[in-house]
Design brief:
Blueprint lengths: L1 E4 H17 L3 H13 L3 H20 L9 E9 L2 E4 L4 H13 L11 E2 L6 E2 L7 E7 L4 E8 L1 H4 L3 E5 L5 H8 L11 E8 L2 H11 L6 H7 L4 H14 L14 E9 L6 E8 L5 E6 L27 E4 L5 H5 L6 E10 L2 H12 L12 E3 L24 H11 L3 E4 L5 H9 L3 E4 L5 H5 L2 E8 L8 E15 L6 H21 L1
Parallel strand pairs: 1-3, 2-6, 9-10, 13-14, 14-15, 15-16, 16-17
Antiparallel strand pairs: 2-7, 4-5, 7-12, 8-11, 9-11, 14-19, 17-19, 18-19
Length: 506
Amino acid sequence: MTVIRQDDLIDSVADALQYISYYHPKDFIDAVHEAYQREESQAAKDAMAQILINSRMCAEGKRPLCQDTGIVTVFVKVGMDVQWDADMALEDMINEGVRRAYTHPDNVLRASILADPAGKRQNTKDNTPAVIHTQIVAGNTVDIQVAAKGGGSENKSKMVMLNPSDSIVDWVVKTVPTMGAGWCPPGMLGLGIGGTAEKAALMAKESLMEPVDIHELRERGPQNRVEELRLEIMEAVNNLGIGAQGLGGLTTVLDVKIHDYPTHAASLPVCMIPNCAATRHAHFELDGSGPALQTPPSLEDWPEITWEVGDSVRRVNLDTVTQEEMDEWKAGETVLLSGKMLTGRDAAHKKMVDMISNGEELPVDLKGRFIYYVGPVDPVREEVVGPAGPTTATRMDKFTRTMLSETGLMGMIGKAERGQAAVDAIKDYKATYLMAVGGAAYLVSKAIKNAEVVAFPEMGMEAIYEFDVQDMPVTVAVDVNGVSVHQTGPQEWFEKIHEAKVVEVK
């Protein structure tokens, strides 16, 4: 009989969550680097360079890979021969580990979890509770897999009840483009096939805990239908040309994971959940000998990547930028931003739109300004702000026309594509939308030289800040004419990939 101490479990969970906040798994780094080396799209290559540079910086500085430090998901397998030396319930012990990890003074992690989700949506302040799945299994150990799943990728989860004769590959190929780029590709796709609806979703999530090994599978060849599906889906999705950050390119997914389970004769449930460029998961086992702490990797595991913007890159002063200047920017162009910008996410946008509707004066003047869709991590030590990467811009689409028409807002900065309604509003008001790389939050934060809360301080990370930035790299994603790089880029690379395949066949 193995005795597991309460503090050992708590310490192990806290250590794992701190560890995965700033260390990518080595298999993921290797996969991104391989994709970077063979990428032919310069925009996608630049995006992956920023992701790799950010990853190394986070490993060195022990700060979060992404400002969205995730909702914690835990898979626990408790051996039947385990005895507990504890006065807390299992879930309470795990949540105490989460609490300690997210409030660690040396590396504060952003608290993103809101209670009363359909009502007041109040922040729990410590990122608890975790989503915990427990199994009682044979054995005398406690096996735990822990992950921190970002909202941008979690929101792109898809579920379908197919007919038994339907093609799973066809459904995936049809569905992935509807996910847009808010899940921050390149990443992984996890699929659960079979069981019931909730079983398929659970399997899809658990499959994402596995290492990237698609290249090994390709070399040895598939041995069953699931492995055949992994290879078929991998090729079909990458042939779409979506590319890193949705900018168009050769690599959209780095691996495809599949778990399956027996299902009803009339059913074929399928769930697909993507993992983003901030892939965060760890595995440990408690055997009664003490806490299971993660072993830091060697910095030699990270490739030496440099990213130079070049002399031809347009430099923009946000304090003096004019409409005439902005009219010259073209979709796909790289721009370096300096000067002052405001920030604002969902809650701030909703509140401002409500104030406009009620005839109230806004607490900040948006005329001629740019607003950055971000909820930063709290700073530590000498930082002016913690990791501050962009959030998914489409969530602000429904507010965009009002903001442009009523405030004189000039431009917006976020990640991923804009919906057609937002693109139309941007074109109508000759505004622009700029894209920062999702998954490069610490790198972005280094461009921020000062940060001050200027409105809605009660909203915490949803408050409106004013950032003073220097040479913050962004891409013109929608220009004043309504041209979107997230439409033109993938279309261009879809055609290039398929033209190459036709030539290859000949």
